[in-house]
Design a protein that fits this description.
Layout (H helix, E strand, L loop, with lengths): L13 H21 L1 H6 L4 H23 L6 H22 L1 E3 L2 E7 L2 E4 H19 L11 H17 L1 H17 L4 H27 L8 H12 L18 H13 L23 H34 L3 H25 L18 H17 L13
Helix pairs in contact: 1-3, 1-11, 3-13, 4-5, 4-6, 5-6, 5-7, 5-12, 6-7, 7-12, 8-9, 10-11, 11-12, 12-13
Length: 395
């Protein structure tokens, strides 16, 4: 009788499997500790939320297992089809999507509600990796980069209307992927300058519209208010710093109080006092609760776990024989790690509040499932199988 061996079923980088499981388990504990206020306001108990998080993790691990068994080259054709549908999906979201916190970011498909930015992230990075892989021998001509630039600009631009911070994170990921994909520096500098000028003009246009015309479009008012709160400056001249509430963000103040209370070793698991004052303690500010309960040392462990994940994603570039595989692996890994560091920086007061969750740790929803899909693709690449380079051939 043959014996069951995990190594015969779980392929790919074992360290990435361990990192995923470690962050997921830490997330279950952190969510259980931080949802007491939410449980009080709702009909569910803290234990019910913990088991809900556990169910998302188990389903997510199942998705990772299924995805990692596929040949990663098979994701390129599907992503190409979804790329052409992506602008329509984003426009539909902005028009008919579910509004939460004043932003339309969610749509429902057959009763399943998900944030479209999670899908767009996977689609754009996969296509960008494929495009860069095909153009490896034609990077010297700027015209060959236009498809990459246009698609990145369209999707990041549409995404910025409802989620500016997510758009910035995805845009930075795309630029990093271009650098790793050997796009000449002179072209990178041109694109960075163009994007920077575009963002400044958009911000100034939003500021002018709010201050002079007393109207706002998209999320520009939210961006302005949060920038005011972070800088503590009245940018729009309405004598209110941070919008109608004025002053700086109360949530960020509470997050900093939690971090200060945690000290070096923390107050202990489940003993956070600030979690009952933070409206999003279980999602947007869960890192501050982690530091309060586990101390600076616990926060450093979490941070270095994400850096460990990044290191394993980078290693795939050296081990994978396909340019597409290496670029796909590092692109998806960067998107996860950049989101994690954006969340951590905001929690410790190094940036304006944006609402970014901590991947695999914050209270789960469909976003955590998309993260498991991304990890499954990275694991598929790390199998380093001998595959015909059909995607990496130059046109």
């Amino acid at each position: 009788m043959s014996t069951f061996k995990i190594k015969d079923h779980l392929k790919g980088d074992p360290q990435i499997w361990f990192i995923t499981l470690l962050l997921s388990c830490f997330g279950i504990a952190a969510v259980y500790s931080s949802v007491s206020a939410l449980a009080y306001r709702s009909s569910m108990s803290s234990e019910a939320y913990m088991f809900r998080q556990l169910s998302f993790v188990l389903v997510g691990l199942g998705i990772t297992y299924v995805v990692h068994r596929f040949n990663f080259l098979n994701f390129a054709p599907l992503a190409k089809v979804l790329l052409w549908l992506s602008p329509l999906i984003l426009v539909y979201t902005l028009t008919f999507g579910h509004s939460v916190g004043g932003a339309k970011r969610w749509i429902s498909v057959m009763g399943w509600t998900f944030q479209t930015s999670d899908l767009i992230r996977l689609v754009l990075i996969t296509n960008l990796a494929a495009m860069l892989a095909r153009k490896q021998n034609a990077m010297d001509k700027f015209k060959n980069l236009w498809p990459i630039i246009i698609w990145s600009g369209i999707l990041c631009g549409l995404l910025a209307i409802s989620s500016f911070s997510t758009s910035v994170i995805l845009g930075v990921t795309c630029f990093m992927l271009m650098i790793i994909g050997r796009v000449p520096r002179k072209y990178i500098f041109r694109m960075v300058a163009s994007v920077f000028i575009g963002l400044c003009l958009t911000f100034l246009a939003g500021l002018f519209s709010k201050a002079v015309l007393h109207k706002s479009f998209g999320r520009t008012e939210t961006v302005i208010n949060r920038t005011e709160s972070f800088l503590n400056i009245d940018l729009d001249g309405n004598e209110l710093i941070g919008g109608e509430l004025g002053s700086v963000s109360e949530q960020q103040d509470q997050a900093l109080a939690a971090i200060a209370r945690g000290g070096l070793v923390g107050v202990g698991p489940g003993r956070s006092a600030v979690k009952n004052k933070l409206a999003e303690a279980y999602s947007d500010f869960i890192y501050s609760i982690i530091i309060e309960e586990y101390g600076l040392l616990g926060g450093i462990v979490v941070m270095f776990t994400y850096l460990w994940l990044l290191a394993r994603g980078l290693k795939n570039i050296d081990q994978t024989k396909q340019a597409f595989g290496g670029l796909l692996s590092i692109g998806l890994t960067l998107s996860i790690v950049f989101q994690a560091f954006a969340h951590m920086f905001i929690n410790v007061g190094l940036g304006p509040v944006t609402g970014q969750t901590l991947p695999l740790i914050s209270k789960g929803g469909t976003s955590i499932l998309f993260t498991f899909v991304a990890i499954g693709i990275v694991l598929s690449v790390s199998k380093n199988e001998e595959i015909a380079p059909s995607v990496t051939k130059s046109k």
